[in-house]
Prior knowledge:
With about 575 residues, the chain is of the alpha+beta class. The protein has helices at about 15-30, 40-60, 65-75, 85-95, 100-115, 120-135, 145-150, 395-400, 405-415, and strands at about 155-170, 175-195, 200-210, 220-230, 235-245, 255-265, 270-275, 290-300, 305-315, 320-335, 335-345, 350-360, 370-380, 415-430, 435-445, 460-470, 480-490, 495-505, 510-525, 530-545, 545-565, 565-580.
Amino acid sequence: MNAVTRRTSGPQSAIAIALSLVLLSLPLLAFGETGAQAETSASTSTEVNRLIEEARQAMALQQYPRAVQLYTKLLELPPHPYSSDALEYLGVARERRGQMAHAKKIYRKYIALYPKTKGAIRVQQRLTAILTAEQSPQKKLRLAKKAREEKQAWQVYGGLSQYYRRDTFKLNNNATRTTVSQLETSLDYNARLRSGETEIRTRFTGGYDYSFLNNNADNKLEIRNLYVDSRDFRSGLSARIGRQRQSSGGVLGRFDGLSAAMQVAPQYKLNLVAGYPVLTSALDTIDTSTYFFGASVDADIISDAWDISTYFIQQHNERTLDRQAVGAEVRYFTPGKSALALIDYDLYFAQLNTFLALASWTFENELTLNTTVDIRNSPTITTSNALIGQTASDIPALLNSYSKNEIKQLAQDRTADSKSYTMSLTLPVNERIQLGAEMTVSSLSATPASAGVEATPSSGNDTYYTVDMTLGDLFMKDDFSIITLRQSDTSTAQTNTVILNTRLPISRALRINPRLRADSSTYKRDNTRERSYNPAVRINYRWKKRYNFEAEFGWEHSGHEITSSLTDTQRSYYLDIGYRMDL
């Protein structure tokens, strides 16, 4: 049993001392001779992989200003295996933003630098398409029949996976109980058709969980994404209809509906969205009792380093105003520095819903400082929050007992204030060693008693300290190990944690990942102690590039000292085994 812990009294713990030493030593180490590394250093490789993944996500979400920033930073790093890809997709991002002059210049540069690569053929086709579009219709080049057929062919990708999961539990000398025994099947299916300047994409992601317990009562079907997406790159129009997920424009996650965008000018993009929120992907029907609509504008009016978006969104629950908010997102990105600020203000409740600020600064010596300030309502304030703790299933039923103003007050009563502040430092000492330290302070406010719902107390300040060391080539070439020390000091307990995590590349196809976690907790309510140990091993085998087989086995033993002569002992085991097949 995993537990969280809090300090009660006594001297500063070893973990807190270690954190202080690391925080003090990192700036000193940063100005030493080990700051500059070779092009092939582990830190540079990690940075490249992170930026490539973020850039891919930005392209997939049509966040082209963000993609431009990320690919630009990739090209400013020392030469790496993704340099040519970064240059190509920088041109694609520019083209999709309507910045054709930039795109043509980048495509020509690519052809000059990488003339004999397969990518040069694609880039030449993109460049030709831009030049042809600028000519009169009489001068358009006609593709050969075979070339047109190849260009219009559907591209299919994705994956199918199945995993069997089993958890068992035993308390003291009681019989062993199986708490989980189920087969989880997931499908990610994507299809794309590109014809000239038009692209159509479809996507389905979902799955089915089959439980071997409780007479299959826990079986569930999940549909996480199911949509059709169409884009016209020449006009800048795009639309997506179906079940989808969005984290911008004030949308609160997954919904069934329509989103559309139009490039109204080179510097401005108008986005429209409307639909029905999906509270759980396990539902296989559309819940139309709650609906929303909204609009946002993405502006590129300062420079490529800035990305600004403002939005308005309104949501109704059974004809009752549920949420009405305005907000803004501001992103800043230059090599070595990035920042994000998000503000969401609810007009109906006249209060700040969310304030989120993140900043990252990487110095020339590769010391990276990250800070996060996250202040928000928990949960996001809506009129529907008034249903928490009530027997009424919807707002119309609640209106039989309370007025609209009373329901509005109940929603505010059920909404707490959440605050979290985080600061972290990472420093690559050399090609094999990286140090890290992080501190987080969080709190959750109290909520009052009302309408038969009991009050909840404030959590106070929960504090978390973490220091870690990442090591490469410790046991063999290209292995990867992390040693983590963590302390949590919360309202209920104090916990000290040690985690040892290693990834061993036995061969190009086989990887073994042994892990060990140990926790020592002291509970504040009665000053009792609990210790737990959790060894685990994960095995990954990749076959013929398309097939990935995984197995993980873990065991946990914990002892909770009730009295000096009485200890509750708990043992649990878990097994995950399955495969993934890439389409």
